[in-house]
Specification:
about 180 residues
């Protein structure tokens, strides 16, 4: 991890977000259960759908200014639309959240790691950082008596990491980090 921080410069804020995602695994299921009690399962699914659509629109609006080329804008639109289309078929809202959270983390890590240059190595390191956070989250859940370690969650975390990195890669090389 120190090499990752020195050479690829993952910002402290991104690391703190990753750590908060890992630590929040200890109580998010309980929060979701409470929300389902108050707004119902259908209401909770609608809430998660609103969060997904809002996040996708925020990504699109923020990135559309930097994309500059109609083909890049089309790629971003098509990617986000297809992700939203396929995510609606996922029954469990927490699985959707895994994908969303790790997509955001993958985008942030890619932005941080490629601040000065975009090489295959920096992109791989950003993806590995995000994937490691997803694996760490599941390992943390394994030691908690009221949580369950699931390989499928690791795969969804990896899918989210890949999505976030891909969304970032649509951005032109000349576009500077935020």
């Amino acid at each position: 991890m120190p090499m990752l921080l020195k050479k690829y410069i993952i910002r402290r804020s991104t690391i703190l977000i990753a750590l908060s995602m890992v630590l929040s695994a200890s109580f998010t299921k309980q929060l979701m259960d409470i929300a389902i009690i108050y707004i119902g399962k259908g209401g909770f699914k609608i809430f998660i759908l609103i969060v997904l659509i809002t996040t996708a629109l925020a990504f699109f609006i923020a990135e559309a200014k930097r994309l500059r080329h109609p083909l890049r804008i089309f790629l971003m639109s098509a990617l986000l639309a297809s992700v939203l289309f396929f995510m609606r078929k996922i029954e469990l809202p927490e699985v959707r959240m895994h994908i969303l959270m790790y997509a955001v983390l993958g985008w942030l890590a890619s932005r941080d790691a490629t601040n000065s240059n975009r090489t295959v190595k920096t992109i791989v390191m950003a993806w590995l950082f995000t994937a490691s956070a997803g694996l760490l989250e599941e390992l943390f859940q394994k030691i908690l008596p009221y949580r369950v370690f699931q390989i499928s969650d690791i795969l969804f975390n990896l899918a989210g990491a890949s999505l976030g990195v891909t969304i970032y890669l649509i951005r032109p090389r000349s576009s500077r980090a935020l």
